[in-house]
Amino acid sequence: MYYVNREQIARRLAAVPEVAEGLRRAAQAWDGSLMLGLVQERCLHLAIEIVTDVGSYLIDGFIMRDASSYDDIIEINHEEKVFDVSTYEVLKRLVSLRKPLVQDYFSWERGELHPLSAEVPTILEQFAEQVSIYVEKELGPFQQGQTEVQSME
User: Fold this and answer.
1) Which of 27, 39, 42, 49 is 20 to 30 A from residue 151's alpha carbon, by CA?
2) In sequence order, what are the beta bridge partners of 149?
3) Cα separations (Å) of 30 from 62, 115, 130?
4) pLDDT > 90: percent of the chain
5) Is it the case that residue 122 has pLDDT exceeding 90?
6) Rounded-to-integer distance, Cα 18 and Cα 94, Å
7) Model-level pTM?
């Protein structure tokens, strides 16, 4: 029996449109300013957190093999066919930015547009759609008012 916290997954996926929009706007208006640099930095960081949080909920809920790293979270979800290979390739590159963004933030090049800033919005939206499809395929449609924990025999 699986216990998947669909509510927490849905809450995180609900943040995707704003993060995608933030990255799109930053990339389109890029002028190397501190403000857009910080917007880009925060949106990339949030994108990573969304992907790894959702991935962890899926791993725990569907009792997939344990993840030993952020990269592993992405790999396991790909192996379990949560998302396609093109999404996986970009998400791997995205998650590799976690250490520079979170631990080495003092040396992050805020004046440069990171190449993933233009790619991630679409991939993040595809990720959200593919996760939703995967969960519905495994557990059935999500309906408003369901309890936090959903089970499957």
Assistant:
1) 49
2) 5
3) 41, 12, 29
4) 89
5) yes
6) 17
7) 0.90
